[in-house]
Write a structure and sequence with these properties.
By secondary structure, this protein is α/β, with parallel strands linked by helices. Helices cover 31% and strands 25% of the residues. Strands 1, 2, 3, 4, 5, 6 and 17 form a seven-stranded mixed β-sheet that branches. A six-stranded antiparallel β-sheet has the order 18-19-22-21-20-23, with helices on both faces. The chain has a five-stranded parallel β-sheet with strand order 8-15-9-10-11. A hairpin with a 4-residue loop joins strand 18 (340-342) and strand 19 (347-352). Helix 1 (14-25) runs parallel beside helix 8. It is globular, with a radius of gyration of 24 Å. The relative contact order is 0.12. The structure holds NADPH dihydro-nicotinamide-adenine-dinucleotide phosphate. The site of NADPH dihydro-nicotinamide-adenine-dinucleotide phosphate (NDP) has 24 residues, from helix 6 and strand 18.
């Protein structure tokens, strides 16, 4: 049977665009549909604008530190509309880059929502239908807001935060994950009064306890009013803002409330279940190790599968899909030892097992160093840096590396190579220190602080 396309990709985010381009480079005839802006969550309403806001917010401390270093400065106010205009222009530039990359690769793309009609047919919102030998679902995810939360212009998610007309004077952020903690730091740095409610005992659940404890302490020291063990019991629009009553009995009006209570896969209404494709927890598309669904012609990658919800992972999954389907080289994406960073202030970089996970698995030695970094210490700040290695007693292998420090994201990318290669503590020790740096501590920690 002749198909209109060899591959039709639904979703123009990082994973979908990469898969489409690489398949086209293999000679496949590829179509792609994106209902919103090309680039997806990462480029348009996630990693990229978030990181630019991290940069914008970090200047407050830089100005303060510069004065401690002898600079005479007069600093003005942060101009949100000016920044937002530049941000929007940058996102439009990147959107155009993504479109050009698709055009240059020979991918035909449609600015329309697409749904599956059958195992080999997609239908666009404008009524066009196309057949394809393979269909790749790469529709990503969207913010989840707990049910019973009223709809209000003052109640927002990370989708809306980049488009506000003005920065609020006060905001309540609900949640203790990546997005909640990153935006608590960003908005605090931009001068917003930030309150954060987290229902558990400590934010950043799943990360190394010592590392997340230090991040939380420094968020509070920087001015975030963090309330752990706290959630909302009543919420309503009031006095031009949002009135919130908390589980601890306190109540007040905030200009805005931001829910950063997780994300869910965008699998609704795509016609997947009608085809016999199973949706798991939260609507995640169930796939095998090769990203194939129960319908062999339909594969899925990225956040819609809710495996490891990170842009570079979606890209890897897209490339592995092309290897498998178009290069006759069955390749399962590797989800082991993925380094990642949380762009809190200070940043948290991590790869491998936390101390808590590792000691469940085997006896480990913990090497840990916490100190004031030279640059911030000289400026009179109390911030501490954490460098931590979790080492197998049996093999000497570094099972986990956790860094809390300015630029921890940059450091963990490189430490991640060593950990992925299976480096031992001895390999770290054989590496000469780069002096004076923060990261040199990773190769100079002599004795374990504890063995468990
Ligand atoms: P997370 O799953 O990381 O965090 C969700 C938070 O909301 C948790 O603290 C959770 O609490 C809390 N929560 C969930 N439901 C409720 C509820 N009903 N009431 C109160 N609190 C609730 O999600 P995020 O949205 O922060 O991020 C989504 C994903 O996006 C991340 O897991 C990550 O994969 C990715 N991401 C990565 C980034 C990076 O690499 N720097 C940046 C941003 C996102 P509890 O812990 O108790 O479950």
């Amino acid at each position: 049977m002749a198909f209109d396309y060899d591959l039709f990709v639904i979703g123009g985010g990082s994973g979908g665009v990469r898969a489409a381009r690489v398949a086209a480079a293999e000679g496949a005839k590829v179509g792609l549909a994106e209902e919103s802006r090309m680039g997806g969550t990462c480029v348009i309403r996630g990693c990229v604008p978030k990181k630019l806001m991290v940069f914008a917010s970090s200047y407050r401390e830089v100005f303060g530190d510069a004065q401690s270093y002898g600079w005479e400065l007069t600093t003005g106010e942060f101009d949100w509309p000016k920044f937002r205009g530049k941000l929007e222009a940058e996102l439009t530039r990147l959107e155009n880059v993504y479109q050009s990359l698709l055009n240059g690769s020979g991918v035909t793309w449609y600015g329309e929502r697409a749904v599956l009609e059958d195992a080999h047919t997609v239908r666009l919102a404008d009524g066009q239908s196309f057949t394809a030998k393979h269909i790749l679902v790469a529709t990503g995810g969207r913010p989840f807001v707990p049910k019973d939360i009223p709809s209000s212009a003052h109640i927002i998610t990370s989708n809306e935060i980049f488009h506000l007309d003005a920065l609020p004077k006060s905001i309540l952020i609900v949640g203790g994950g990546y997005i909640a903690c990153e935006f608590a730091g960003i908005l605090n740095g931009l001068g917003v009064e930030v309150t954060q409610f987290y229902r558990g005992a400590q934010v950043l659940r799943g990360f190394d306890d010592e590392a997340r404890g230090l991040v939380a302490t420094q968020m509070v020291e920087r001015g975030v009013k963090l309330h752990t063990g706290t959630n909302i019991v009543e919420i309503e629009e009031r006095e031009g803002g949002v009135w919130v009553k908390a589980t601890d009995g306190s109540h007040r009006v905030y200009d805005k409330v931001m829910f950063a209570t997780g994300r869910v896969p965008n699998s609704n209404g795509l016609g997947l279940e009608e085809l016999g494709i199973k949706l798991g927890r939260n609507g995640a598309v169930e796939v095998d190790a090769y990203s194939q669904t129960a319908v062999p012609s339909v594969c899925a990658i990225g956040d819609v599968t809710d495996r490891v919800n990170l842009t570079p992972v979606a890209i890897r999954e897209g490339m592995a899909f092309v290897e498998t389907v178009f290069k006759n080289n069955p390749t399962a994406p590797d989800h082991d030892l993925i380094p990642s960073a949380v762009f809190t202030q200070p940043e948290l970089g991590t790869v491998g097992l936390s101390e808590e996970e590792a000691r469940e698995q085997e006896p480990v030695d913990i090497y840990c160093s916490s100190f004031k970094a030279m640059q911030q210490g000289f400026a009179g700040r109390e911030d501490r840096v954490l460098m931590k290695l979790v080492v197998s007693q049996a093999s000497g292998k570094v099972l986990g590396c956790h860094i809390v420090a300015p630029q921890a994201g940059e450091m963990i990318q490189l430490a991640g190579i060593a950990v992925k290669m299976g480096a031992t503590k001895e390999d770290f020790d054989r590496t000469v220190a780069v002096h004076p740096t923060m990261a040199e501590e990773l190769v100079t920690m002599k004795a374990p602080v504890r063995s468990t």
